[in-house]
Write a structure and sequence with these properties.
It contains 18 helices and twelve strands. With about 525 residues, the protein is α+β, with helices and mostly antiparallel strands. Helix 4 runs parallel beside helix 17 and helix 7 packs parallel to helix 10. The structure holds adenosine monophosphate and magnesium ion.
Length: about 525
């Protein structure tokens, strides 16, 4: 593996920039005043082929702060449209994101994008900036999702600057450098369909399919067909298979979100990645106490993007994507069949994840009721989402591990007389009754030893989760000049399944003030 000392040395490809100009506007970033590098994710840097030396260079800060273009890159802002909160919003686009270029790193090809580096032709009423508060939240969330094994865009660096930015109050500016194989969204497809431009819709689809879904290409019978520009002309079946693949990835992503209590907050079609990545972290939230109707975005008063609604919203968003593809794949029935795969794929993915979370070797009759009753119990008691599953591994009657081991595995969230799992519920009798049924179910499994089950459950149920109050503490410390807490949390989130000594505060139930935190779209 080659590690480069400067961003200038890393090979670039810029495939998105090679597409027709209608897809984007070439432009420059607008530099910020006195940029300071607050944090670099060295794991992401390695993917890009950057050495430790490169990260401390002035060149690096110049690029990730938007002061200088990426050497060998091609800076642009992409256009897209979308449905926001269920309504057609028309043209949107990268209002404050600049794609700097595509890096050919040892970990694959990665687009490097800055968020907050100035206005673009798509800024509408916005200022092209991002505030430190929301930038820290995006930076931490990218790491949290990665650590949980959930597909996500990554974040390479976090830079703050002295420029004032007007939101509800005056805040300071920041820039996050995001990294993903592609930032193309459902809304990118809706854009060309709404403009009744099948040529460009086909061009965009072919680009995404050739690069990221080549397995969907169905060769036409006989000699390959080429369009006027000499490019291969794909069959309708290719686009249907492409939709099917996106449906499946998105369905699995929804299961991933649901089982860690993640709420995206703004599941508009322009925030849905065509690669099935979690994209655009705004007013997201990981639930503390379980409430299926939990809405993390203070602005979403109707609860459109509540936790329980996310899978159905994703399906609705996929329907919009299918509608767009109809322009180039006029086979309504086949597209509908592809959309219909959402539910079975989602349910199967949920089932697999719930089996892992509960330490079940196979799915048996009655398990669905057992799992549903656990959700109901959690709902009725507003039980902590993360700790309920984490502590279940060592619930009474299910563990013969010594007390010290239990305390360690559970990150000291139980100690003294506290009883794992049971004491997370106000209605202890109901918790004990459910636990009795669960114990009975576990004891019927002979193919897995107790330590195996416990290890498996600890490896799938995180101890550390990016709770709102943890992010808030980091934000406040950083705003007051202490950025060191970013590293502490980043390191924990990189491996949220293994308890770290001395980190009790990060695993503990949220303090009372956490429930008063309000997160809005303002960013
Ligand atoms: P979001 O729902 O936060 O992903 O944003 C929706 C649209 O508004 C996107 O096209 C963003 O680029 C744009 N946008 C959000 N905030 C700003 C801002 N401060 N300046 C310019 N554009 C923005
Ligand atoms: Mg967005």
């Amino acid at each position: 593996m080659t590690l480069f000392n400067h961003l200038v040395d890393v090979p670039k490809l810029n495939t998105f920039a090679a597409l027709p100009h209608a897809f984007y506007t070439r432009l420059r970033t607008t530099p910020l005043n006195h940029p300071v590098l607050l944090h670099v994710n060295s794991d992401v840097a390695v993917l890009l082929g950057l050495s430790g030396q490169a990260l401390s260079s002035q060149d690096f800060l110049d690029v990730v702060s938007g002061t200088s273009p990426l050497p060998g890159g091609d800076t642009l802002a992409a256009v897209y449209s979308g449905h926001q909160f269920g309504q057609w919003a028309g043209q949107l686009g990268d209002g404050r994101a600049h794609l700097l270029g595509e890096i050919q790193g040892p970990g694959g090809n990665w687009e490097l994008q800055l968020k907050g580096a100035g206005m673009t032709p798509y800024s509408r009423m916005g200022d092209g900036r991002a505030v430190l508060r929301s930038s820290i939240r995006e930076y931490l969330a990218s790491q949290a999702m990665y650590g949980l094994g959930i597909p996500t865009t990554r974040a390479l660096s976090l830079v703050s600057a002295s420029n004032p930015v007007m939101r509800e109050t005056i805040e300071t500016a920041a820039v996050v450098a995001r990294v993903a194989p592609s930032f193309v969204r459902f809304g990118s497809f809706e854009h060309w369909a709404s403009k009744k431009n099948p040529e460009l819709l086909r061009r965009l689809s072919d680009y995404v399919i050739e690069r990221f879904y080549p397995e969907c290409i169905v060769e036409s019978a006989g000699a390959p067909v080429f369009s006027e520009d000499g490019r291969p002309s794909y069959s309708v079946r290719t686009y249907v298979r492409f939709l099917e693949a996106v449906v499946k990835r998105t369905a699995v992503l929804m299961a991933d979100w649901q089982v860690v209590g993640f709420c995206h907050g703004v599941m508009n079609t322009d925030n849905m990645s065509i690669l099935g990545l979690t994209l655009d972290y705004g007013p997201y939230g990981f639930m503390d106490g379980f409430d299926a109707r939990h809405v993390c975005n203070h602005t979403d008063t109707a609860g459109r993007y509540a936790w329980h609604a996310q899978p159905a919203v994703a399906h609705w968003n996929l329907y919009q994507l299918a509608n767009s593809l109809l322009e180039i794949a006029p086979d309504t029935e086949a597209l509908r069949d592809a959309l219909d795969q959402f539910e079975p794929v989602f349910l199967k993915a949920m089932q697999q994840r719930m089996m892992n979370k509960l330490g079940l070797v196979e799915w048996k009759d009655g398990d669905e009721t057992l799992v549903d009753d656990l959700w109901s119990l959690m709902q009725a008691n507003h039980a902590d989402f993360t700790l309920t599953f984490r502590q279940l591994a060592h619930a009474p009657g299910l563990t013969s591990a010594p007390a010290a081991q239990i305390e360690q595995d559970l990150g000291a969230t139980v100690h003294g007389t506290l009883i794992p799992f049971v004491d997370l519920f106000v209605d202890r009798e109901a918790a004990l009754a459910w636990l009795g049924r669960y114990r009975h179910r576990i004891q019927s499994q002979t193919s897995q030893s107790e330590p195996e089950r416990i290890q498996g459950m600890l490896a799938t149920n995180p101890l550390y989760i990016l709770r709102n109050h943890l992010a808030q503490q980091v934000i406040e410390a950083t705003q007051q000049g202490d950025a060191s807490q970013i590293s502490t949390l980043m390191n924990l989130l990189a491996n949220p399944f293994v308890a770290q000594p001395g980190m009790q505060a990060y695993a503990a139930l949220p303090p009372a003030w956490a429930s008063k935190l309000e997160v809005s779209c303002s960013s």
